[in-house]
């Protein structure tokens, strides 16, 4: 956080913005935790609650957007302060998308609850836990202003990608062996993809935070482990 401005209220406004982003990040993480639990426990009431609470995430994004626009218009920040305000706008957008993906997982769980349980549903936990670990860590890195921690989160995305690709292959094989379960497995695929995308957005936040703190984005292209688009499953293999 920036300190020492002549106008004390400016520091207060930046502090409020920082607090709102941290609050939004923690809410998004809670939403993801609840969506995953609703899916694994086949808890329709919890899933419905996650979907309803997505409005809280949206409201926080709107509040942050209003705060950033006000700061840009009235304070004309420069340097580190400008990066902080612009980063808040970008990070809140990524958190809003994470909230949407968590709500989508909850929505898929309601469809899955109408069908016999697929054992591979349990495999969502590895992807979901890894994605939520990234999200929790990047929110902490933001709260602490820790660029090194943000870079570590960025590097962790490959674990989410690998878990997603492994489940994708398992589901393709399972559908070939049990065509009657194709509908349930399709819902599982979409849920898994939503979780993988949460990891991508946590990575975006980490990269934005690095830019905010260091004044430049990470130089090297991050390693990606999602090769599901190249996956081929041969019948009987």
Automatic annotation (TrEMBL):
Keywords, comma-separated and alphabetical: Cytoplasm, Phosphate transport, Transport
A Pfam family annotated for this UniProt entry: PhoU
GO biological process, one term: negative regulation of phosphate metabolic process
Subcellular location as annotated: Cytoplasm
Domain PhoU: 21-108, 124-208
Chain segments annotated as coiled-coil in the UniProt record: none
Record's GO cellular component terms: cytoplasm
Stated role: Plays a role in the regulation of phosphate uptake.
Family the entry assigns: Belongs to the PhoU family.
UniProt subunit comment: Homodimer.
Name used for this protein in its record: Phosphate-specific transport system accessory protein PhoU
Organism: Nitrospirillum iridis
């Amino acid at each position: 956080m920036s300190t020492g401005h002549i106008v004390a209220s400016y520091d207060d406004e930046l502090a409020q913005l920082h607090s709102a982003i941290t609050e939004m990040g923690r809410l998004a993480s809670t939403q993801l935790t609840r969506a995953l639990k609703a899916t694994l426990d086949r808890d329709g009431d919890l899933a419905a609650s996650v979907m309803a609470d997505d409005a809280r995430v949206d409201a926080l994004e709107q509040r942050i957007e209003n705060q950033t626009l006000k700061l840009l218009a009235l304070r004309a920040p420069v340097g580190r302060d400008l990066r902080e305000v612009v980063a808040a706008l970008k990070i809140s957008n990524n958190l809003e998308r994470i909230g949407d993906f968590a709500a989508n997982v909850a929505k898929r769980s309601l469809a899955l609850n109408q069908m016999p349980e697929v054992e591979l549903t349990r495999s969502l936990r590895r992807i979901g836990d890894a994605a939520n670990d990234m999200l929790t860590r990047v929110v902490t890195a933001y709260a602490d202003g820790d660029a090194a921690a943000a870079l570590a989160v960025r590097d962790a995305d490959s674990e989410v990608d690998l878990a997603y690709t492994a489940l994708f292959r398992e589901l393709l094989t399972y559908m070939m062996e049990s065509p009657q379960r194709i509908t349930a497995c399709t819902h599982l695929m979409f849920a898994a993809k939503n979780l993988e995308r949460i990891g991508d957005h946590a990575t975006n936040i980490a990269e934005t935070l690095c830019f905010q703190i260091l004044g430049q984005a990470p130089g090297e292209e991050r390693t990606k482990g999602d090769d599901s688009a190249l996956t081929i499953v041969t019948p009987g293999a």
